[in-house]
Amino acid sequence: QKEVEQNSGPLSVPEGAIASLNCTYSDRGSQSFFWYRQYSGKSPELIMSIYSNGDKEDGRFTAQLNKASQYVSLLIRDSQPSDSATYLCAPLYSGAGSYQLTFGKGTKLSVIP
Amino acid sequence: ETGVTQTPRHLVMGMTNKKSLKCEQHLGHNAMYWYKQSAKKPLELMFVYNFKEQTENNSVPSRFSPECPNSSHLFLHLHTLQPEDSALYLCASSQDITANSGANVLTFGAGSRLTVL
Asked: Which of the 8 DSSP states describes residue A53?
């Protein structure tokens, strides 16, 4: 069973704070991990990808990966109200000769002005 | 047009109707997907096509029938749907499905909101 676990939230943080979003996954063979952001009524959009253990920074976003613990997280620094959205964790799982993204239910983030 | 385009954006149909959802991608990708998104559920993969050949059917009921005439176009034909099929149907594309890398990154269309009465 290919599972992706995320706290559904809502996670509420004040404007300017750090938002921490967590994800665990079941497939030890996963090598690639993606974070998508989905605004209400919109489709998901890619915000970060990470392939190696450790941290990857892109502007206010930092993705963290620990393959031994099967754990991936997303930190959002200096959170803004425009960051309010649902964040989807998506490990790349292998199937029968192909690879597919498997999505968690998502964590709803609310940034309070 | 750029990216992934889906039509119609909204569709209301009765249980005896036949309708189709259309998706077109302008990214030069080789793989196309249909996902279903219902409230409080994760995105559910329905179908995958790679180079217009179906590579995955995720146990989807036969009342949903996909069609992929070429790598740029994907259809989802709908027939005798049930009210529980009401959801957001998302089309996506990716460069590849065989590499364990960023080539599998999905670009989504805006979605088709389906309501079955």
From this structure: S
Chain B residues touching A4 at Cβ < 8 A: 42
Extract the residue ranges of chain B whose pLDDT is less than 70.
1, 100
> A109 is written with which tokens?
């983030």
The tokens for A61 are 């976003």
Q: Which residue of A has its CA nearest to B109?
A: A43
CB spacing of B42 vs A103 below 8 angstroms: yes
Each residue's pLDDT tens digit, B32-63: 999 999 987 889 999 999 998 888 888 899 99
Query: Between A49, A98, A104, which is nearest B42 by CB?
Result: A104
**pLDDT (0 to 100) of residue B52:** 87
Return the residue of A nearest to B89 by Cα: A43
Q: Is the sign of the CA dihedral B74, B86, A4, A40 positive or negative? A: positive
Asked if the Cβ–Cβ distance from A43 to B40 is below 8 Å, we say no
Q: Residues of B at the A interface (Cβ-Cβ below 8 Å)?
A: 40-43, 45, 48, 50, 55-56, 90, 97-102, 104-111
Give CA separation, A97 vs A110, A113, B61, in Å: 39, 47, 24
Which residues, 6 or more positions from B84, have their beta carbon under 8 angstroms from its beta carbon? B116
Contacts of A51 (CB under 8 A, 6+ apart): A31, A32, A33, A65, B101, B102
Q: Do B100 and A92 touch (CB under 8 A)?
A: yes
Could you report the average pLDDT of every consecutive run of 10 residues in chain A (113 residues)? 86 97 92 94 94 94 96 98 96 80 94 96
